[in-house]
C-alpha cells in the first residue's frame, strides 16, 4: 500500500476553502429559495429539469439520474410535490413499470416565479464576485471534475 500523499499547506487551504464555501453557498441559496419562493432545492431541481424539456416531462428514472438520487428517494419526494400540485405522474405508454413525471401548470408557475430570485441570489453570492477569467476557470475546473466523476474523462461533452 502506497503512503498517503498528504495535502500541503496550499492544497489544504484550497480544499478546506472550497468545502466551507460550498456549505455556506448551498445553505444561503437554499434559505433564500425557501424564503422567497417556498421551494426546497430539490423542488427547484425537479421543476427546472422538467421545465427545460420540450414537453415538460421526464421519465422518473432519467430525472433520478439527473439529480443523482435513487428512484425510491425521488419517488417519495415527488409524492410530496404531487400533494402540492407541482407535478403529476403518468404511466409510461410503452413500459408499464416506468412512470413519467409531468410539470403541472402550478409547477410551471412556481418555477417561473422562483427562477428570477434564485438567479439573482446565484449572481449575488457567486457569479458577480468573480472576474470573467475566474468564471472561465471555474467552468473549466468544474467540468474536469464532473467528467472524472461521471467517467467521461477524455471524451468531448
Automatic annotation (TrEMBL):
Mind telling me which Pfam families this protein's record contains? MarR_2 (PF12802)
Q: Name one GO molecular function term.
A: DNA-binding transcription factor activity
**Biological process annotations from GO:** response to stress
Instruction: Note the SUPFAM superfamilies from the entry.
Output: Winged helix' DNA-binding domain
* Protein name, per record: MarR family transcriptional regulator
Q: Where is the HTH marR-type domain?
A: 11-147
Concerning InterPro entries, the annotation shows: HTH_MarR-typ, MarR/SlyA-like, WH-like_DNA-bd_sf, WH_DNA-bd_sf
